[in-house]
Amino acid sequence: MARVTITPSTATALSDAVASDSALRGFLHGLPGVDQVGAEQRAAALGTRSIKTTAKAWALDLAVSMVDLTTLEGNDTPGKVRTLAAKAMRPDPTDPGCPATAAVCVYGDLVGVAKETLGTSGVKVASVATAFPAGRVPLEVKLADVRDAVAAGADEIDMVIDRGAFLAGRYLEVYEEIVATKAACGQGDRRAHLKVILETGELQTYDNVRRASWLGMLAGGDFIKTSTGKVQPAATMPVTLVMLEAVRDFRETTGTQIGVKPAGGIRTAKDAIKYLVMVNEVAGEDWLHPDWFRFGASTLLNDLLMQRQKLATGHYSGPDYVTLD
C-alpha cells in the first residue's frame, strides 16, 4: 500500500499540521488512502506463514516478553494484582529460563500495589487513565487521573482518545488533549511513557485508523494502541497492519520510532506468532522488542506457556499447569 514518503512538501505539512485545526485536517486527510481489500488480503497472507521449531521457540519467548499482563475489571482486588504481578515476574516457576512479561497493566488505584510487588524486577507498571475506557469526563479530570497514577509509580500510561471529537473532525482538540496528557506524565527520568489508545473498533474505517495513528504520533505518543479491550472488534490483523505501516512511515519521515500495542482478543500463541511475523514483514525487525511492540492480554500468556512446555517435553501438560487468570 502507498507509503508516506519524505518530500519537502511532506516536511512542511508536518511542521504546519499542528499550527491550526485546518492545517492538521489538511495533513491527515492528505495521507494516502488505505486499500481495504488489499490490507485484509495482505494480513491474511501473512497469517499463513509457517514457523519452524527453533524459530517457534524463539518467537514464543519473545511473545511472552512482550505481554502487558492485564486485569481491568471492576472486581479487581489488591490480592489479585499481587498474584498477577508474581506471575509476570516468573510466568513459569518451573522454568527459570522463561522470560518475564513486559508489564502489568492495572487501574490507577492499584498501581501502588503492583509497584510494591514488582519491586526492582524490571517488569513495568502500566496504568490505564484518562477515564478509561470511555474517556467521557472533562480534561481536568483526565489529567488528574494521569498525575495520580504517575505519582503512585506508574511507568507507563495508557490513555484513551476522545473518539467523539475525532469522528466529528475536531482533530486539533484530540491532538491538544494528547499533548496535555503527555505533559502530565512527567519529565526526564521520572516521565511515564504514553500509550495512545485509538479504540479502532469505533473508528469505522481503515483511513480513520491511519489518521488517528498519525495524530497520536504527531502529538507525542510513545506507543499507539488498538483498543481498550472493552469494545468489539478489538485488535485485528488488518488494523494492526495499518498501524504498523503508520509507525514505519513516521520513522522514515521524522526519524522517530513509535511502538505499537494490539490489545483485546489475542488469546493464542498461534495468533501472537502471526502478529510477530507481520511486525517483521511490515515495520521491520527493529520493532521485534518489548520496547516497541506489546500485546495487551489477560489470557494469552497461559497459552504461550503451554506451547513452550509442549516444545520442551513433546506433550501438553494438564489443565493445572498454568494459573487461570
UniProtKB/TrEMBL annotation:
Keywords: Lyase, Schiff base. Pathway: Carbohydrate degradation; 2-deoxy-D-ribose 1-phosphate degradation; D-glyceraldehyde 3-phosphate and acetaldehyde from 2-deoxy-alpha-D-ribose 1-phosphate: step 2/2. GO terms for molecular function: deoxyribose-phosphate aldolase activity. The keyword Acyltransferase does not apply. CDD domains: DeoC. Its EC number is 4.1.2.4. InterPro entries: Aldolase_TIM (IPR013785), DeoC (IPR011343), DeoC/FbaB/LacD_aldolase (IPR002915). One of its GO terms (biological process) is carbohydrate catabolic process. It is an enzyme of class 4 (lyase). Gene3D superfamilies: Aldolase class I. It catalyses: 2-deoxy-D-ribose 5-phosphate = D-glyceraldehyde 3-phosphate + acetaldehyde. It holds the Pfam family DeoC. It comes from the Bacteria. GO terms for cellular component: cytoplasm. The keyword Lyase applies. Belongs to the DeoC/FbaB aldolase family. DeoC type 2 subfamily. This is Deoxyribose-phosphate aldolase. It comes from Nocardioides mangrovicus. The gene is deoC.
